[in-house]
Write a structure and sequence with these properties.
CATH topology of the largest domain: Maf protein
CATH architecture of the largest domain: Alpha-Beta Complex
Number of strands: 16
CATH superfamily of the largest domain: CinA-like
Strand content: 15-25%
């Protein structure tokens, strides 16, 4: 088993490597990272500069003013990294520092407030070279503090910074190991890493969506999000001052019924609330971690297949560890205001599962506690109908079956408009079943393409997704 170095040991090892040379810019929690290098000894071989532009006017004069006036943002961190690295290149004599690999480390954070109402969060990053003179690589991450004193959070930030700098230089060729090493000498209950992006010359091969999945699988966070470009994004920044509409599913693959479920529910959601506009609404697809691992271990190729399709459709995708819907709503509530509207589109089978008491045995208040959390905020469920394969009956909120002891609870939420039937649906889509489509694709069955939206069928064929083999299918079609 590999020995884990302490922060001081890591700092000393970097200090003794005379080829690593750079600057530190830390805002909001003191100079917690750089002090490890000072205390370890030999810092003169590593430190070109260390600073903390604590006053906002000083900070603005150095890095420029942000349009939104905020300082603990990804944009601010990127400005800091770009500015500091540019100064290194401009101010250091190339001949005198020949053979050195430059870096700029920065963080901008806010620690827990005096009233202990807001735990604090921050952005941390490094811009660095592995070989002298090469194009830079970059690692940027967002953290949420879990400890209850500013002092402890500052200590944790310092350790995280050391781990990031060490990992950048010693584990750059193994991003998963680098991610794991960020928690060296720390516990998961100290800090949450809920977003990370690798970019630049050394990380061209890295798919950041897989890095998000690694965070989630290893308990470093409970939810991650990526955009249509495949880059990870911070959910808090996306949900900030937004109403939210979400569709949960396996999307293996996404079908016309999924899109109709989303669009029809969304149309009702927007018509119901006049305050919802295109500018203040976030629409997303959500996949649970348990959904990704239904058949055992998570198949990363299968995950990327689904992700590629959803990204092609132009949506943000949330991957969460919230099997129960009430946990998803609680998560949204962390980033939204009291008057925020939340809409969830779901099928009949999903709603039946929501009313299954076995999923709430871990709650002292059982299903009543879960529903209190689910509908505590302004949450509406838009129910898409389903045709029973056994009876051919169209099932909706009026005839779905729940346990006798839950009928009054069900009627209460339906009567109060929290469960709303989608009525303007495409009848022909109700006979589309994604599991059947998934079986038809590798078998080259005819007609599966018609069940998928837009050019997704062509995309699956071109990319060879879900077991599609163009040569095999071409051979079958000529038989």
């Amino acid at each position: 088993m590999e020995r884990v170095l302490t922060p001081k040991q890591k700092a000393l090892e970097i200090n003794l490597d005379r080829s690593i040379y750079g600057s530190f810019a830390e805002i909001g929690a003191g100079q917690e990272t750089v002090r490890f290098f000072y205390r370890a000894g030999g810092a003169s071989g590593t430190l070109a500069k260390a600073m903390s532009a604590y006053d906002k006017d000083f900070s603005d004069s150095i890095y420029g003013r942000e349009n939104d006036g905020r300082y603990v943002t990804e944009e601010r961190l990127k400005r800091m990294l770009d500015h500091e690295f540019r100064l290194i290149e401009e101010r250091l004599d190339a001949e005198q520092h020949k053979g050195q690999r430059f870096f700029a480390y920065a963080n901008t954070v806010t620690t827990i407030d005096y009233a202990k109402k807001y735990k604090g969060h921050g952005w941390v990053g490094i811009k660095f070279q592995i070989e002298p003179g090469e194009a830079c690589s970059e690692i940027i991450l967002h953290v949420r503090f879990k400890e209850n004193t500013a002092h402890l959070q500052q200590e944790t930030l310092g350790v995280l910074g050391i781990n990031l700098i060490y990992g950048a230089y010693y584990y750059y060729d193994n991003p998963r190991k680098l991610l794991d090493s960020l928690y060296d000498m720390m516990d998961l209950d100290q800090i949450e890493i809920d977003m990370i992006n690798f970019s630049g010359s050394r990380f061209k091969y890295v798919d950041n969506r897989l890095m998000s999945l690694h965070l989630l699988r290893n308990g470093m966070t409970q939810a991650v999000m990526f955009g249509p470009d495949g880059m990870n994004i911070l959910p808090a920044s996306i949900f900030y001052k937004k109403h939210i509409f979400a569709l949960r599913g396996s999307f293996r693959p996404v079908t016309n019924v999924n899109i109709d479920m989303l669009n029809q529910g969304l149309k009702m959601f927007k018509n119901q609330y006049n305050e919802i506009t295109a500018e203040n609404l976030e629409v997303l697809f959500e996949i649970t971690l348990s959904n990704l691992s239904q058949e055992g271990e998570i198949d990363e190729r299968d995950f990327l297949n689904r992700a590629d399709i959803l990204c092609r459709l132009g949506y943000n995708v949330l991957i969460s560890n919230f099997s129960e819907y009430y946990k998803l709503v609680e998560y949204f509530a962390n980033f939204t205001k009291e008057r925020t509207q939340i809409g969830i589109s779901m099928g009949v089978n999903n709603l039946i599962a929501v009313f299954n008491e076995k999923y709430y045995t871990d709650l002292s208040g059982g299903i009543m506690e879960a529903f209190g959390k689910l509908f505590k905020r302004n949450v509406n469920i838009y129910l898409y109908p389903y045709i029973s394969r056994e009876t051919g009956e169209l099932l909706n909120s009026n005839n779905l079956k729940v346990n006798d002891n839950l009928k009054d609870l069900y009627k209460y939420f339906k009567k109060n408009g929290r469960i709303i039937d989608v009525e303007d649906f495409n009848q022909s889509y109700l006979k589309i079943y994604s599991k059947e489509i998934l079986k038809q694709i590798p078998k080259c069955k005819e007609g599966w393409e018609d069940s998928l939206p837009g050019d997704i069928a062509d995309f699956i064929k071109t990319k060879g997704l879900f077991g599609y083999d163009s040569d095999k299918c071409k051979y079958i079609s000529t038989e």
